[in-house]
Description:
Chain A is of the alpha+beta class. Chain A has two domains: 14-77, Arc Repressor Mutant, subunit A, CATH 1.10.10; 86-238, Chorismate lyase, CATH 3.40.1410.10. Chain A has seven helices and ten strands. In chain A, a hairpin with a 3-residue loop joins β1 (67-70) and β2. The first copy, chain A, is elongated and about 65 Å long. Chain A starts with 13 loop residues before the first helix and ends in an 8-residue tail after the last strand. Residues 243-248 of chain A have low confidence and may be disordered. The first copy, chain A, binds a DNA duplex through α3.
Amino acid sequence: MKYSKKTISESLPRYQEIQNHLKSQILSGTWAPGTKVPSEHELAAQFDCARMTVSKAIGSLVEKGLVVRRRRAGTIVAAPRSQETVLEIHDIQAEVQASGRLYRFDIQSRRVGKATREEAEKLGAALGSPVLAISCVHWADTVPYALEERLINLDAVPEAESEMFREVPPGSWLLAKIPWNEAEHRIFAVSADAVTARVLKIRRSAPCLCIERRTRRDSHNVTYVRLIYPGEQHVLVARFQTHGATAR
Amino acid sequence: MKYSKKTISESLPRYQEIQNHLKSQILSGTWAPGTKVPSEHELAAQFDCARMTVSKAIGSLVEKGLVVRRRRAGTIVAAPRSQETVLEIHDIQAEVQASGRLYRFDIQSRRVGKATREEAEKLGAALGSPVLAISCVHWADTVPYALEERLINLDAVPEAESEMFREVPPGSWLLAKIPWNEAEHRIFAVSADAVTARVLKIRRSAPCLCIERRTRRDSHNVTYVRLIYPGEQHVLVARFQTHGATAR
DNA sequence: GAGTGGTCTAGACCACTGA
DNA sequence: CAGTGGTCTAGACCACTCA
């Protein structure tokens, strides 16, 4: 049978029909974890298509973690292990503006120097490396939105030394300068210390959400940032990864 | 040219070689966002393989968000938008045991009844639906680890009504009972109220990390849970999605 | 040894869209 | 309207692993 595109039916790609069929069996619980999925040959016959089309459908389910493939053993429904979710951490400026508020930022302090032990550790750079340390407050309308404390490795981004961040906040500047990074995040709750309370205009020891991020580029540590959001105001939303469209 | 598997070279699949090549161009910054990637035909010629092999390589990069494909326009390097990370939220029992500590849990309260307005809203069920409300403390050795407040929709999981959770905590019980869900998470910082402070043995108004999760199965809301972790003790770790192995 | 998935080919037709 | 990606086929060979 030669290839010929959908005739009637409102043209969902063949592999997606197959994928949806399998997914519904799994998510509805008809196929419990450990259940053997029909072999690719069987599915190809059942859906009257080439095996590769089936393979593409199943491959996508593997990436989502819904099934596990093993040679000879076949494809089986995976056990849901940890709750794995996709968390989107947006650019602060975009985040504020998306909520319809006016964005601005203040540079509180700016220092170029050699990394102290603590700074070197946070940044993952050698003691005494040249660093730029910045403290910055982000505002939404007239309300403090977040406190940013950032270290930039000047070995990795020498241009930053002469950048004063008058127009563009450090995060956006770096994003444009150094696109495509790897990063690790740590998320936890902290109590506002005196400085944080003052600049964010909240009471001392108020709960805050803290996001720490270390960013690498090509295995070189580029920047470390600690963002503190006034508690209960800022909510991170994550959706379960396994369902719906894949990445974005 | 007929297909014949790797001869010399230690056999990385063809499509992965291509993918790695493209990825390194992007992550190293050689190809800035907006740069046009060679067409699939060109790449197929360049790597001496079929176009479908190239397509598979690129398809994977699309899922990771590194490139965007458009007909006629071709494939271009994507702009890194939000920092999208994968967050793993583990089963509490597994989490505690993984850290080498003894896990146990206490059921603080258990009530079967009709959903109040607040409960119905949290659960996303109709007012007056039958619900099971549970409060539960998780321990690591002799230290309180987290406070769990959970609502279970008895329309979706009627077996829960007679389950006393003597052996297995509600989360694990549900996971085994209702495999494969969809879920939404909300993460934020809160201040410990009187009850939370008492059961977690922390001072009042201490900062805590709060994770709310609403779980669906087949579009039916199954359970709502609110987990409160003593602040600064519990850290969520997330890694940037775009690099390295895909899902897990 | 036989059956499974893993990968690949050399075509093909189609749909979209930018020049 | 021409070039791009999107999808698909009907094979093929290979590697693994379980019976």
